């Protein structure tokens, strides 16, 4: 009720203490927000919008107004069974359900894996005494993968610069050459929205709604994006053409999307990036494990590693090397970056894991259940 009242989604209805979700109301919400045409359906034969957690996460990245709804849906899905399997040693063990998604990404059950819980609940995790948790993720993974697979020289150059979204803005001529993340943070987020949105099949109407600009300006921005990265757009067109004629698209490790000609063209166009990211993750985890590290959990573009405190710095560097080796092997020598800042990636005992987005909610929950000492 509080979320509905604050954000006015108009998706949930209440009768007394009962709260219910409505697909038809969600479709009406998509129409109001200009997202109806771009939102994928569960299948070509179904009229229901996709609401799986991975897809919602992707769309919330592009369209931040969806984030409270995504967090609420994730929380309500977890609450009825908020009892993950915990061993006598305090470890949470569950299947990662490898290859469960059509892109071969892991799909662990939300009710079982702590890292699938809402962000504020993940702070119940911490390393063993004398140890540290490392959350080592890739930087702008799908952008970099798209650049490498398409062979777009400009896109690869912008990724290598360390600030691909600013690089795109400068290349499009909408940002000055001296722009930085600090001086043009809002404009950078707009460029990020354009990058992510184009990969998800966004059109000019959706972009106009997202950025709060006119349809003409949105059309111009998409035209400039096509001009900035022509190799990328040619690659996406080739992938879609392959799907129609070969009825299949595949990755370097031969993970295949069969019957691709029956799938939505937006998901087909983005399939190589997501599926290749899954290939890279599996290879990086193998390299880290063979190097003697304890990989606690793999995610889409990240892994959680448990190490001794004195080994944390060296382990973080080694994981970065694993990401580099895995991406170079599968992207024709093109290396993806990972975050090496210990302040953002290392959580030494007794410091809990911190998601960073919902600490206030975790602190309220800790006080509510009588554990103020666990507040962050």
Ends: how far apart?
Answer: 27 Å
Low-confidence stretches: none
Report the β-strand fraction as a percent range. 5-15%
Return the string of H and E elements: HEEHHHEHHHHHHHEEHEEHHEH
Largest sheet report: 4 strands, antiparallel
**Shape label:** globular
Average of per-residue pLDDT values: 88
Total strands: the figure is 8
Oligomer: single chain
How are the strands of the largest sheet arranged?
Answer: 6-7-3-8
Number of helices: 15
Structural Rg? 21 Å
Structural class: alpha+beta
Q: Helical residue percent? A: 40-55%
Q: What can you tell me about this protein's structure?
A:
This protein is an alpha+beta fold and about 375 residues long. Helix content is about 50%, strand content about 10%. A four-stranded antiparallel β-sheet has the order 6-7-3-8. It has a two-stranded antiparallel ribbon with strand order 1-2. Strands 4-5 form a two-stranded antiparallel ribbon. A hairpin with a 5-residue loop joins strand 4 (about 250) and strand 5 (about 255-260).
């Amino acid at each position: 009720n509080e979320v509905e009242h604050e954000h006015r989604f108009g998706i949930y209805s209440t009768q007394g203490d009962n709260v219910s979700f409505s697909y038809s109301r969600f479709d009406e919400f998509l129409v109001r927000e200009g997202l109806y045409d771009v939102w994928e359906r569960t299948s070509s034969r179904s009229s229901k919008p996709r609401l799986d957690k991975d897809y919602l996460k992707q769309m919330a990245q592009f369209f931040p107004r969806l984030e409270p709804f995504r967090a609420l849906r994730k929380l309500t899905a977890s609450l009825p069974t908020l009892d993950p399997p915990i061993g006598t040693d305090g470890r949470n063990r569950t299947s990662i359900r490898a290859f469960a998604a059509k892109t071969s990404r892991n799909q662990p059950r939300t009710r079982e894996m702590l890292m699938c819980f809402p962000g504020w609940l993940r702070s119940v995790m911490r390393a063993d005494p004398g140890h540290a948790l490392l959350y080592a993720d890739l930087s702008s993974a799908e952008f970099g993968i798209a650049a490498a697979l398409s062979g777009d020289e400009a896109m690869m150059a912008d990724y290598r610069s360390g600030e691909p979204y600013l690089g795109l803005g400068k290349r499009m001529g909408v940002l000055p050459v001296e722009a930085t993340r600090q001086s043009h943070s809002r404009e950078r987020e707009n460029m990020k929205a354009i990058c992510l949105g184009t990969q998800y099949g966004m059109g000019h109407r959706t972009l106009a709604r997202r950025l709060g600009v006119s349809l003409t300006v949105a059309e111009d921005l998409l035209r400039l994006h096509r001009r900035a990265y022509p190799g990328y757009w040619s690659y996406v067109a080739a992938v879609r053409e392959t799907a129609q004629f070969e009825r299949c698209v595949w990755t370097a490790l031969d993970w295949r999307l069969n019957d691709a000609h029956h799938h939505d063209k937006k998901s087909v166009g983005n399939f190589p990036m997501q599926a290749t990211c899954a290939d890279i993750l599996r290879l990086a985890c193998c390299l880290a494990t063979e190097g003697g590290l304890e990989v606690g959990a793999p995610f889409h573009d990240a892994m959680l590693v448990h190490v001794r405190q004195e080994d944390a710095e060296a382990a973080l560097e080694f994981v970065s090397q694993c990401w580099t080796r895995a991406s170079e092997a599968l992207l024709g020598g093109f290396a993806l970056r990972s975050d090496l800042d210990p302040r953002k990636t290392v959580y030494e005992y007794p410091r809990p894991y911190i998601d960073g987005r919902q600490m206030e909610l975790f602190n309220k929950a800790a006080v509510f259940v009588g554990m103020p000492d666990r507040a962050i």
